[in-house]
Amino acid sequence: NPQTQYFIPAHFVQKLSVSQADRLILSMEGGISISEDPNFRFDFTAHGTGQIQVEAIDTDGKVFRNQWPLEVTGL
């Protein structure tokens, strides 16, 4: 912190996993190089319809879990 000169502990996404129908699509281990408000983009081939599940764990041990309906386009 520039004003107090106190050390600011690192706080970032440590692990991220994305699945569809219990099949792992993406797994990532983060580090301090990830931005404060990260945006991850990737392509994958869907296996039918269903939900996309995401789980993210930060360096404080907080867990974010959610799922969204899969939107398949005709491309």
Describe what you observe in this structure.
The protein is mainly β and 75 residues long. The protein has a domain at 13-36 and 46-69. Helix content is 0%, strand content 40%. It has no helices and 4 strands. Strands 2-1-3-4 form a 4-stranded antiparallel beta sheet, with no helix packed on it. Strand 3 (51-58) and strand 4 form a beta hairpin. It is elongated, with a radius of gyration of 16 Å. The termini are far apart. The mean pLDDT is 87.
Fill in the keyword field for this structure.
75 residues, mainly beta, four-stranded antiparallel sheet
Element layout with pairings:
Blueprint (H helix, E strand, L loop, with lengths): L12 E8 L2 E7 L21 E8 L4 E7 L6
Antiparallel strand pairs: 1-2, 1-3, 3-4
Strand content: 35-45%
Compute the separation of the termini in Å: 48 Å
Strand order of the largest sheet: 2-1-3-4
- Poorly predicted ranges: none
Indicate the radius of gyration in whole angstroms. 16 Å
Question: How many β-strands, per DSSP?
Answer: 4
Short précis:
The protein is mainly β. The protein has strands at 13-20, 23-29, 51-58, 63-69. It is built from no helices and 4 strands.
